[in-house]
Amino acid sequence: MPTCDEITTAVNEYNGENSALDSALRSALDATSSLPSTSGRFLAEVCLIVDWGSIPFLSFENRIALAHEIETAWPMLRPMRSWHTENWDDETRMLIRAVESLSDTHPLPTPGLKRRQLSFLSKYLHACVNGAFPIWDKNARTALHIENDEACWPSYRDWVIRVRQEAATHKACCLEQIRLPAECLLRTLDKALYVIGGKVLAEKRDKGR
Predict the structure, then answer these.
(1) Residue 140 burial (C-beta neighbours within 10 Å; 0-12, 13-18, 19+)
(2) d(C-alpha 19, C-alpha 10), whole Å
(3) Burial of residue 117 (number of CB atoms within 10 Å: 0-12, 13-18, 19+)
(4) Is 1 helix (H, G, I), strand (E, B) or coil?
(5) Which of 203, 66, 209 lies closest to 139 in space, CA to CA?
(6) pLDDT by residue (tens digit) across 171-180?
(7) What is the tens place of the pLDDT at every residue in 66-81?
(8) How far apart are CA 81 and CA 143, in angstroms?
(9) Could you count the other beta carbons within 10 Å of the beta carbon of residue 23?
(10) Alpha-carbon distance values, 163 to 40, 60, 78, 132, 134 (Å)
(11) In terms of CB atoms within 10 Å, which end of the chain has fewer, N or C?
(12) What's the whole-model pTM score?
């Protein structure tokens, strides 16, 4: 598992290379969040997340479909935006219940794109609903040595538990010291996992050549 030194180094590297991109995304999402809850707003958010998350293979038609699904689920998602508790375990339980509710009413669409869509949906939940939701992607799973890549809500539920356990372990020793002002601890940890996992995958690709 990543050490505090590895996490700190990776977060500093991420911030040095991506702070402008993340800031631009945040500004754009802050602007869209003030718009009425219509499919047009959600399509704009979907496109922002897809392009920021480097998911270009989600066609415009798929993006429209995702926006409609988000609009349908918004009455359930909107209250989650204000969820916050100082008790870490209580917050984790709230998130688990949320994922279980979503699995009942918001299935992953388009069978051929399920893996990419779970990656997208986790990014949308994190960036547009509540930062306490962790991002589910290959880099992060690689950094934590998680081999399960089945793109389904039960996998994401287990991922919520695993990542929040890791965040709790490093909360006081490094994450609170290196996170940016007002940044969620899960976002700080995600930056580290993205960089660490990316390097591991790059090494594996180099060895396979």
Answers:
(1) buried
(2) 13
(3) buried
(4) coil
(5) 203
(6) 999 999 999 9
(7) 899 899 989 999 999 9
(8) 28
(9) 11
(10) 32, 31, 23, 10, 7
(11) C
(12) 0.92
Are the beta carbons of 49 and 123 closer than 8 angstroms?
yes
Q: Which two tokens stand for residue 118?
A: 């779970």
Helix and strand numbers, DSSP H then E, in the chain: 9, 0
Tokens of 95: 């998130």
Q: Which secondary structure element, helix H or strand E, spans residue 18, and what is its range?
A: helix 4-32
DSSP assigned state of 80: G
Which among 20, 53, 73 has a CA at the least distance from the CA of 127? 53
Indicate the residue type of 190. Answer: D
153 and 108 Cβ atoms separated by less than 8 Å: yes
Q: What is the C-alpha separation between 88 and 19, in angstroms, rounded?
A: 27
- Helices 60-77 and 39-52: crossing angle in degrees, nearest 10, is 110
- Residue from 169, 152, 123, 179 nearest 4 by CA: 169
